[in-house]
Each structure stands twice: as structure tokens, then as C-alpha cells.
């Protein structure tokens, strides 16, 4: 799925329509040797350009005394199809344990490139011949990962006055015969029976999701000067690794081919053992929808006086007989998408900030159909009708308090027995014309709600300054309660409606999904399998179905991360 030059992402200056995760691996050759007695100790810093400024994204490990390093560190980036994403790789010879890039470190080389070139070619020799290879690989949206626990016994002793300092390297053998470093363990000092720290790796990285793909595993005795001594090697597959279970372990003889040829009674240079394996399935949004997970949609509408008198054509709530106002446009755009994932097509419709009958007291949580026992409306058209019928009966007032409604929906989602089977997920759409008044209470309510199967979409209507609303969005940092408690997960997405006046309103829900990939259920149900009931895909999904199918990571896996 790609977008043209007039896509809403390009028009808004935000993320473009087509986005995927890309892994970058880096290797160098023929680096400059800045050290007198030893070789350089290189480290690569990855810089990304954002609004003309270069900022550090991440950095590799430091490899001691090596002018041809192959780094184990994997850089993970979002790849946007239409954007020119400039990358800068800076290589330093590191001295000591202080901050990399400080005065004492020697600058070796800098390389500039564009991510799209790297992504489309896979392996990219950089312009500077010193920088040998940048390998790019797209990560599948429904990708799982595995946690591996390795140890070894009776490894050969390569040191004269002490024992070997072993580490393990795992390489994936590609279809063209090339070898790609997957993981390098830490060094275990002075130990012939090392137990390495467990590590996690995606199945795409490990074996390209091919259980029978060969993996080449090498065991080395680490040398501080970079001249590591070869202990032995073995070949494995992910299928072999999965034979572990029931207390049994998977073992391989660590073989040194030279010793095998020269020594008549040579058996091995030790044994490498896979003591445990934990496979984690990452479910996609489509898995949950096809399994029967229902999305319950609630809309909350701002009826504060700042919207203007609904009888005045300048009011944001003015009912124009010829075209819908901005509240209705946003409601219909998002609601018509969400209703395809709700089997009964009934939606809760609430209001806040108005004086309501019969006593005309201010309420920040009322049913716009004035039925507190049943606030649901039939389909989006029912919500539209309830909204139009409500306006003449209420008095717009204030302030703009949204925490009561957030707390109400969070309590509702917490009270349901749906977390166990991932059968329902809640979406709260808040339509407002200004910055919320109860910011502290709203932050507290969002932190509490982040523990529930709930996501919140806030659409800013009108021309107010919504700068402070970015705090709730969490894009500039982790949202915290007034007491400093962080959200469990990012559940809020704020979108100014005015940004869609220059593009089709149909792209509003489209961009909400892409601007905030953790907004929906897959961000909550990370380890809970989808319901087992097979459901058919509604024929009316059109664009949203394509979005979810092509980018299944867009939705429900981050909240239910600890439920099996």
C-alpha cells in the first residue's frame, strides 16, 4: 500500500501512509588506526535528521582493537515510503569508558546515506570505501520473537596462564550463501563452563521465519587486542532448537575442523547447550478481529460555551441544513470506521460541559439521548440524530473537564471480564474545541486508564491553540500523573481537525491509525491469544482492512502482554 505525492501524510508534514519497521546492521573495513600500540576500538553512532537538526538515535557496542568490525548491535527504524530519511553514521575510536564522542575519542569517519536507498537495495556499500556495509531488512508486522538461553561445558583452554574467556556468535546463512551476524554474547571471563545471559531476537532476524534455515554458531576465546582465538563451531536450525522441553536440553558438539583433521582421537572442543527457549508470538490486530474481538466505541462531545451559540452560523455546533459541522464531520469519519468492528453497531454517546434538563445543572458526563440507563445509539446515524436533538435542549456552559468521562469508560472496561479472553476493546473518541481545564485530573485518569483495554482519540475542533494537548498525546515524552507515575502504555492520540481541511476527511481515521500504531488492542493484548471464534471480515472494511492487513502491527497487541 503506497501513497502518492498528495497523500495526507505529506500534506500534514507527518508520517506518510506506508510505514514499516526496518533493521539496520553495520560493518566496517579498513578503518584508520589511530592507536600507537594497538588497533582502534571502533564504535558507530547513528544520527537521524529531524527538521534540519541531527540527533543521535542509537549507537553500537565498542569492539576492541579491530579495523574490520562487524557490529552485533541492530538499529531499528520506522521506514516511511515517501519521506527522504537521511542517516549519518559516525565512527569513533573509543578511549576509556567515558561518553562516546568526547574530546579524548578519535573521530575516524562519517558517512551519509538515505534510508530508502538502503531499504530497497538491502545491502548498501556506503560512498566512503572505509564503511563497508549497511544491511537493511524489513520486519514483518506479525513477527514473533524467541528468547534463548545458552551455556557451554568443557571448552578448550586457549590461554597459557588462565582459562579461556569465551563468547558465542550466531550467524544466519542467507539464500545467497552470505552470513549475517544475528547475535554476539557477552564475554565470560576465565571460565570453560560459561553460562551466557539470555537474549531475545526476532524470528525474522534469526532465521527469516524459516525453521530449517542453517545457523552457523562460533565460539571464541576473547582477546583484549582483538585477536580472538577460535575454539570451535557448530551448525543448528531453529527446528532443532525447538526440540527442547520436558526437562531435556539441546546440545551440540563444538568442533574445530583443524583439530578434527590433525588429531586422531579428537572428539570435540567442548559442548554448547541450549538450556531453555521461550517463544513469544506477537499477534496482529487482524488476528484479534478474525478471532472475534469486538471494539466498543464511545463518543464524548464538548458542549462548552466556547463553541459559540448553536443558533449562530459562526458556532462550531451550528446545524447547517446543507452540510455537517466540524463535530459531525469528525464523528462520522472516525465512527464509520469503528462501527465495522462492532457487531451490534450500538455506540455510547456522551456530552460534557453543558447545563442539562431538568434542573439545568452543569454536567461533565451525560447521555446525549438523555437516557442514563441506556446511553447507546443505533449506529453512527443514531449518534448524529441524538446530537442534533440534544442541542436545542441544553445550555452550553463549561469548563472543559474530560476526566469524568475518561474515568467512567476506564471503570467500565475494567469491570468487564474481557481481559481474560481478549473479547472486547474500548475506544473513546473525544471531540473538543479547546484545551482541557482539568489537566491534572485528566493526566491522572489517563494513567489509570492505561492499565485497561482502552484507547483514547482526541480530535481538536476549531482554531484554538492546542499546543498543551500534545502533553496528553505523549509524543514528546512519557505522560505522567501529577505524582509522577508514568502511563503503562501510550493510549492517547491527539489530532487537530483543521489539519484535514486541505485533504480528504476520509484520511482522518487513516492517519490516526498510522500516527499512533499502539492506539488499539494489539497494544494491550500482547501475549493473550485472540478469541478462538473465527469471524468473517466485514465487506465494508475497504481501506481500513487494507491498512490492517498490510500493517497488522497497527493494532491490539500491547495491553494484554502478561496474559496467556
Explain what the structure shows.
By secondary structure, the protein is of the alpha+beta class. The chain has 13 helices and 26 strands. The protein has helices at residues 8-12, 115-121, 203-207, 238-241, 257-262, 285-291, 326-338, 379-390, 403-415, 439-449, 470-473, 507-515, 542-550, and strands spanning 19-27, 42-50, 53-59, 70-80, 86-93, 106-114, 123-124, 133-139, 145-153, 166-173, 179-184, 199-202, 215-221, 229-236, 250-253, 271-280, 294-302, 346-352, 354-356, 361-363, 366-367, 376-378, 395-396, 424-432, 454-460, 492-496. The strands form six sheets. Strands 17, 18, 21, 22, 24, 25 and 26 form a seven-stranded mixed sheet that branches. Helix 11 links the parallel strand 25 and strand 26. The longest helix has 13 residues, at 326-338. The chain is elongated and about 100 Å long. The two termini are 33 Å apart.
Summarize the structure.
This protein has helices at residues 8-12, 115-121, 203-207, 238-241, 257-262, 285-291, 326-338, 379-390, 403-415, 439-449, 470-473, 507-515, 542-550; strands spanning 19-27, 42-50, 53-59, 70-80, 86-93, 106-114, 123-124, 133-139, 145-153, 166-173, 179-184, 199-202, 215-221, 229-236, 250-253, 271-280, 294-302, 346-352, 354-356, 361-363, 366-367, 376-378, 395-396, 424-432, 454-460, 492-496. The protein has 564 residues and is an alpha+beta fold. GO terms for molecular function: calcium-dependent phospholipid binding.
Amino acid at each position: 500500500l503506497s501513497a502518492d505525492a498528495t497523500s495526507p501524510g505529506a500534506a500534514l508534514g507527518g508520517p506518510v501512509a506506508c510505514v514499516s519497521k526496518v533493521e539496520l546492521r553495520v560493518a566496517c573495513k579498513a578503518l584508520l588506526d589511530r592507536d600507537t600500540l594497538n588497533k582502534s576500538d571502533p564504535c558507530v553512532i547513528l544520527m537521524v535528521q529531524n527538521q534540519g537538526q541531527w540527533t543521535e538515535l542509537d549507537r553500537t557496542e565498542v569492539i576492541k582493537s579491530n579495523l574490520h568490525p562487524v557490529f552485533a548491535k541492530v538499529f531499528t527504524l520506522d521506514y516511511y515510503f515517501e519521506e527522504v530519511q537521511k542517516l549519518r553514521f559516525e565512527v569513533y575510536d573509543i578511549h576509556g569508558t567515558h561518553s562516546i564522542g568526547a574530546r579524548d575519542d578519535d573521530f575516524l569517519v562519517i558517512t551519509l546515506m538515505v534510508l530508502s536507498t538502503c531499504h530497497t537495495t538491502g545491502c548498501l556499500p556506503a560512498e566512503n570505501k572505509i564503511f563497508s556495509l549497511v544491511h537493511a531488512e524489513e520486519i514483518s508486522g506479525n513477527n514473533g520473537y524467541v528468547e534463548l538461553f545458552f551455556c557451554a561445558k568443557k571448552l578448550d583452554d586457549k590461554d597459557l596462564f588462565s582459562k579461556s574467556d569465551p563468547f558465542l556468535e550466531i550467524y544466519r546463512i542467507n539464500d545467497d550463501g552470505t552470513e549475517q551476524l544475528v547475535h554476539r554474547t557477552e564475554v565470560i571471563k576465565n571460565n570453560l563452563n560459561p553460562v551466557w545471559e539470555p537474549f531475545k531476537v526476532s524470528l525474522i532476524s534469526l532465521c527469516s521465519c524459516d525453521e530449517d534455515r542453517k545457523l552457523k554458531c562460533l565460539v571464541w576465546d576473547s582477546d583484549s587486542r582483538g585477536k580472538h582465538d577460535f575454539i570451535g563451531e557448530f551448525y543448528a536450525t531453529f527446528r532443532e532448537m525447538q526440540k527442547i522441553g520436558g526437562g531435556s536440553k539441546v546440545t551440540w558438539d563444538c568442533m574445530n575442523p583443524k583439530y578434527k583433521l590433525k588429531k586422531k582421537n579428537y572428539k570435540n572442543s567442548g559442548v554448547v547447550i541450549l538450556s531453555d527457549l521461550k517463544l513469544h508470538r506477537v499477534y496482529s490486530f487482524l488476528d484479534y478481529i478474525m478471532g472475534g474481538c469486538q471494539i466498543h466505541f464511545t463518543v464524548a462531545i464538548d458542549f462548552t460555551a466556547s463553541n459559540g451559540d448553536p443558533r449562530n452560523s459562526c458556532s462550531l455546533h451550528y446545524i447547517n441544513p446543507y452540510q455537517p459541522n466540524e463535530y459531525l464531520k469528525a464523528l462520522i469519519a472516525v465512527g464509520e470506521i469503528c462501527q465495522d468492528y462492532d457487531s451490534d453497531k450500538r455506540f455510547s454517546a456522551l456530552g460534557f460541559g453543558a447545563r442539562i434538563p431538568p434542573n439545568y445543572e452543569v454536567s461533565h458526563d451525560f447521555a446525549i439521548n438523555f437516557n442514563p440507563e441506556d446511553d447507546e445509539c443505533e449506529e453512527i446515524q443514531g449518534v448524529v440524530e441524538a446530537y442534533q436533538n440534544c442541542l436545542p435542549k441544553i445550555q452550553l456552559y463549561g469548563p472543559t473537564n474530560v476526566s469524568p468521562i475518561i474515568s467512567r469508560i476506564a471503570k467500565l472496561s475494567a469491570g468487564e471480564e474481557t481481559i481474560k479472553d481478549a473479547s472486547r476493546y474500548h475506544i473513546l473518541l473525544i471531540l473538543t474545541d479547546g484545551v482541557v481545564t482539568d489537566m491534572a485530573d485528566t493526566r491522572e485518569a489517563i494513567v489509570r486508564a492505561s492499565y485497561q483495554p482502552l484507547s483514547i482519540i482526541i480530535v481538536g475542533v476549531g482554531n484554538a491553540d492546542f499546543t498543551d494537548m500534545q502533553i496528553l498525546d505523549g509524543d514528546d515524552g512519557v505522560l505522567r500523573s501529577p505524582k509522577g507515575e508514568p502511563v503503562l502504555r501510550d493510549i492517547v492520540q491527539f489530532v487537530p481537525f483543521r489539519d484535514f481541511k486541505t485533504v480528504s476527511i476520509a484520511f482522518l481515521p487513516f492517519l490516526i491509525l498510522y500516527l499512533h500504531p499502539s492506539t488499539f488492542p494489539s497494544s494491550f493484548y500482547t501475549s493473550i491469544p485472540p478469541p478462538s471464534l473465527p469471524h468473517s471480515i466485514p465487506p465494508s472494511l475497504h481501506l481500513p482492512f487494507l491498512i490492517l492487513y498490510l500493517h497488522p502491527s497497527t493494532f491490539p497487541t500491547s495491553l494484554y502482554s502478561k496474559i496467556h
